[in-house]
């Protein structure tokens, strides 16, 4: 019997709470200027050349900082190759620097160091040019070590830039026409 009374009292308490809550109306808006919520500004986005492609990131580094590159001409043996590089920080950094290291068969003739640059704003591309000299055919990697100093401390992130080198086209023999095949000598 006592248990039934407790259940009834509990049910009455619940009903009273519901009735009191039903009476809570939202506050009346104050008279005056209407409140207009301004839309959030679009996220800041880096503007890099459309012909640039992303370097391969070691891990999840690209969400913090990314490296993009563009080759200005096809890589050819024994011909200098200009590589435009854009380092794009996706957050603010105190300092950014980079080192570019090539492997055997691909010599870095200039641009192997970048920076350090200070007070880097997010989504502001940092331009750099690297000049390579391929010494033989093949597929090569240029490794970029990007050092950042920021709220997380000093961190080095690794990126790879693939370069595929083809042999230089052999010059056509003197007097031979590119449209007509060479004639075979008569065997008489």
Quote the distance from N terminus to C terminus.
131 Å
Helix content: 10-25%
So, the CATH homologous superfamily of the domain at 53-165?
Immunoglobulins
Number of strands: 10
CATH-defined architecture of the domain at 53-165: Sandwich
Radius of gyration: 33 Å
Q: What do the pLDDT scores average to?
A: 78
Parts with pLDDT < 50 across at least 5 consecutive residues: 15-21
List the helices and strands and how they pair.
Blueprint: H1 2-22, E1 53-54, E2 56-57, E3 65-71, E4 81-89, E5 93-101, E6 106-110, E7 113-120, E8 126-134, E9 138-150, E10 153-165
Walkthrough of the structure:
This protein has 188 residues and is mainly beta. The protein has a domain at 53-165: Immunoglobulins (Immunoglobulin-like), CATH 2.60.40. It is 11% helix and 41% strand. It has one helix at residues 2-22, and strands spanning 53-54, 56-57, 65-71, 81-89, 93-101, 106-110, 113-120, 126-134, 138-150, 153-165. The strands form two sheets. It has a five-stranded antiparallel β-sheet with strand order 1-3-4-8-6, with no helix packed on it. Strands 2-10-9-5-7 form a five-stranded antiparallel β-sheet, with no helix packed on it. Strand 9 and strand 10 form a beta hairpin. The longest helix has 21 residues, at 2-22. It is elongated. 19% of the residues are buried. Mean pLDDT is 78; it is low at 15-21.
Keywords:
mainly beta, single chain, elongated, Immunoglobulin-like, 10 strands, 188 residues
């Amino acid at each position: 019997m006592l248990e039934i009374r407790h259940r009834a009292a509990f049910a009455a308490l619940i009903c009273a709470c519901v009735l009191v809550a039903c009476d809570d109306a939202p506050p009346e808006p104050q008279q005056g200027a209407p409140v207009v919520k301004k839309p959030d500004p679009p996220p800041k986005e880096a503007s890099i050349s459309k012909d640039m492609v992303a370097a391969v990131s070691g891990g999840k580094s690209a969400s913090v900082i990314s490296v993009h590159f563009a080759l200005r001409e096809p890589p050819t043996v024994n011909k200098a190759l200009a590589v435009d590089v854009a380092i794009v920080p996706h957050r603010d950094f105190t300092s950014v620097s980079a080192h570019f290291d090539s492997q055997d068969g691909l010599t870095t003739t200039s641009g192997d160091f970048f920076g350090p640059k200070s007070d880097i704003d997010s989504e502001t591309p940092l331009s750099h040019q690297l000049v390579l000299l391929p010494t033989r055919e093949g597929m090569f990697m240029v490794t970029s070590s990007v050092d950042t100093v920021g709220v997380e401390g000093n961190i080095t992130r690794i990126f790879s830039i693939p370069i595929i080198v083809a042999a230089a086209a052999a010059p056509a023999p003197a007097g031979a026409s590119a449209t007509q095949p060479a004639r075979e000598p008569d065997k008489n």
